[in-house]
Amino acid sequence: MGHVRDLRLFLLSALPLAFAGLFFGGVYSYNRPPVLRKILSVPHSYGDDHNPASPQQVHISLVGEDKMRISWITESSTPATVEYGTSPTKYESSANGTTSSYRYSIVYKSGEIHDVVIGPLKPNTLYYYRCGPASGRDFTFKTPPAQFPIKFAVVGDLGQTEWTDSTLQHIAKSNYDMLLLPGDLAYADFYQPFWDSFGRLVEPLASQRPWMVTQGNHEVEKIPVIHSKPFTAYNARWRMPFEQSGSDSNLYYSFNVAGVHIIMLSSYTDFDPSSQQYKWLEADMGQIDRKITPWIVVLVHAPWYNTNTAHQGEKESDEMKASMEGLLYQARVDVVFTGHVHAYERFTRVYNGKADNCGPVHITIGDGGNREGLASKYEDPTPDISIFREASFGHGQFEVVNATHALWTWHRNDDSSAFVSDSIWLRSLSSDPACQYRGQR
Ligand SMILES: *[C@@H]1O[C@H](CO)[C@@H](O)[C@H](O)[C@H]1NC(C)=O
Ligand SMILES: *[C@@H]1O[C@H](CO)[C@@H](O)[C@H](O)[C@H]1NC(C)=O
Ligand SMILES: [Fe+2]
Fold this sequence. Notes:
Layout: H1 2-24, E1 56-63, E2 67-74, E3 81-85, E4 93-96, E5 98-100, E6 103-104, E7 108-109, E8 112-118, E9 126-131, E10 138-142, E11 150-154, H2 162-172, E12 178-182, H3 193-206, E13 211-214, H4 232-237, E14 253-257, E15 260-264, H5 276-286, E16 295-299, H6 315-330, E17 335-338, E18 344-351, E19 354-355, E20 361-365, E21 386-390, E22 394-400, E23 405-412, E24 419-427
Parallel strand pairs: 11-12, 12-13, 15-16, 16-17, 17-20
Antiparallel strand pairs: 1-2, 2-8, 3-4, 3-9, 5-8, 6-7, 9-10, 11-22, 14-15, 18-19, 18-20, 18-21, 22-23, 23-24
Helix pairs in contact: 5-6
Fe (ii) ion binds near residues 216, 217 and 340.
């Protein structure tokens, strides 16, 4: 039954997909090496009896400094209620939230998408929780610490292949506090059931630690005439805490965690100086207090610095950089994490195309494991500002030790234990007297 419906959906989706190819083929025309690994499709099968009220695709995200949003999907209509507490199966608290669903073109209707914000919660504490009434599935998560040290896992262009699975297994062993994802999640590419499959694939990790994401080109899913609204599935399924930072859009927002101010930007929304996104960013940066958050980290999908031959000359990279790089520089942003290019690359501190001790370190970490494969051709000779580049799948860990020091490591998947292939100690710009500027708080 489910298979018949999936097949019908697939055939109905194939037409708009081909149609979309006509429009977007030119934009994303980079030819990657052939795909060697299988695409994973994770079916809905929890336990022996299939209960349509059973929670699936559970993931959590931080809201404010001490609350958590619990998101999950059910096939049937159930109350959006989360029970939680600090000891197993004894849930002393509960909270209600909202339920929504969306349609994609005329063929697809999503399951019931539930969002419940719980808290206030204690920092660095293990919580037990359950989604919906009478659900047999119990979950746990750990809240992030309120102070340094804190460890972030960073991975972009994740997808859902055997490469992805390998990356996730390595991340699971890293003892991270929070995952940061600079865009391109499911690679559903208009075929909505792949969003559900992705939700199931990441659930073991995303239900245990907050996953904070921003979106890439594979989240746009806009098809002229057939489905003209962009980001429909992304916004419905991956709701982020944008209101808390004064943003008017789920596509860009910021938050503080343990002394780090994290800013999520949108490559595929207006970014010129008259845009809402630009004005919001300017206001957000004006409110950063470096005594509270000595570190500033920015995530955006399309890289502003890139010496791979893939994705050169795209407007989301070049024009967004031209518009916003000055703001990031003046705010003394420490690191910019990007994706889009399916490889790893780390730059020196840089501003306006040149090495600059007060500029951010730009890191491309688009090597999560998507089905398009790796981008392995580079500009030759290597420009001076590019310090380390390699086309291998993997993930990064950003461990902020204290107000002045952080350790960045890139972990390649090739080895059974995630191999450290690149590592560097960073000093926060707020602690560098040579980078103080007027107006800094
Ligand atoms: C959640 O909603 C149910 C049903 O309306 C209600 O009985 C319960 O008290 C609510 N719980 C909270 C914490 O508001
Ligand atoms: C911060 O961490 C670095 C690296 O571990 C260490 O060398 C430094 O002394 C620490 N600073 C403070 C103020 O503890
Ligand atoms: Fe991308």
